[in-house]
Every structure is written in structure tokens, then in C-alpha cells.
Amino acid sequence: MANITFRRQVAKWPGDFSSELVQRVVRMNEKVFAGMFEDPPYSFTDYYERLAEVASIVITAETRGMVIANCVAYPIEDMMYVWILAVLPQVRRHGLARRFMDAIELMAKEQKLATVRVKVYNVSMSMQVLLLNRGYHIVQVVPSPTDSKYNEVYFELRLASST
Ligand SMILES: CC(C)(COP(=O)(O)OP(=O)(O)OC[C@H]1O[C@@H](n2cnc3c(N)ncnc32)[C@H](O)[C@@H]1OP(=O)(O)O)[C@@H](O)C(=O)NCCC(=O)NCCS
After folding, report:
1. Which of 130, 133, 152, 154 is the best mutation target for the ligand 1 pocket, counting ligand atoms within 8 Å of the beta carbon and taking the most?
2. Cβ atoms of 33 and 41 closer than 8 Å
């Protein structure tokens, strides 16, 4: 895939965050996650509330001014929590998610965090394969009261200590 621009922002909302970029991320994710889970995709307000007061990381891949993939993560105590990872269907299986996870894990190591944690709903099989292939382990499953496809599956990667 040619002409892809990668951008990484580390920001404390609303601070120096580009809300215009986040709006484009929200619009893309509304498409990717529409109908996938029990709840509708997160709104701009959800992003605002979730990212307020945390040093969050937003990574985007863009082509011709359009966001085609994005990842949102932030540290919680000694872990890096990957909240969102989405790639448009037409550009999947080109290594974009892998590249984002590489960046997130590297940043977590640089911040000397102990783990990277990702919550995946059971329906997201591609994401589960991706994580298992990267050495993540399932550390918790929260059953959905309505349908097992909505079970929350928590994956964790323990980062090697640098000492
Ligand atoms: C999951 C998702 C982010 C993967 O993005 P991607 O850019 O296509 O992933 P990559 O190309 O980096 O794939 C990396 C590895 O993940 C695994 N993988 C990705 N998609 C897969 C699929 N459909 N089936 C099986 N394995 C898959 C493979 O191991 C792959 O390596 P390979 O291509 O060398 O075999 C993308 O499918 C997506 O946006 N899905 C919908 C949203 C979602 O479920 N997000 C996760 C919720 S937290």
C-alpha cells in the first residue's frame, strides 16, 4: 500500500489534541463498529469523556486525507490499555494493526509499564488471532448476560523487564 501517512499524537485532552482528527477517527469507527456489538459505536462525547485527564495515544494511518486505520490507547497505573483498534475493511491484512501494536508496545516499554492490556469482544475473531499470535494471554472473561458472542475477553502481554 502506497502513500500512507502515519501520525502519532500523545496528548492530554483537550490540551494540544486535534479534535478535528479525533472527529475523523470517531466517524471512521462508527462505520467499522456499526452493528458489531450490543451497544452502538462510541460517540464523540464518549471519546471526550474517556480521554479527558489521561495522557492518551492516538495513532492514525491516512491516505488522501482519509483516516483508514486508528488505534487509541492510554496508561492505567502500570499497564497500557488499548481501547480502540480499527482498520477499514478494504485495507485489512496489510499489517496496519500489527504496526500499531508494535508502536503501542514500544511506548509501553519506554514508559516502563509492566503490561499491555486489550479488551476484545468475542465477535472480534481477527483481533483475537492477532493478539494470540503476538504472545498475548487471556487473563479474564466477563460473560455477557445476553449472548456469548458479546463476552468481554481480556488479553494481556507481560513486558520483559529491562533490569
Ligand atoms: C482486527 C483488525 C484491527 C486487524 O487489522 P489488520 O490491519 O487487518 O491486521 P494485520 O494485517 O496487521 O494482521 C496481523 C495479524 O493478525 C491476524 N489477523 C488479522 N486479521 C485476521 C483475520 N481476518 N483472520 C485471521 N487472522 C487475522 C493474522 O495473524 C495477521 O497476520 P498475517 O496477515 O501475517 O497472517 C481489523 O480486522 C479490524 O478493524 N476489525 C474490526 C474491528 C475490530 O474487531 N477491532 C478490534 C476490537 S478491539
Report:
1. 130
2. yes
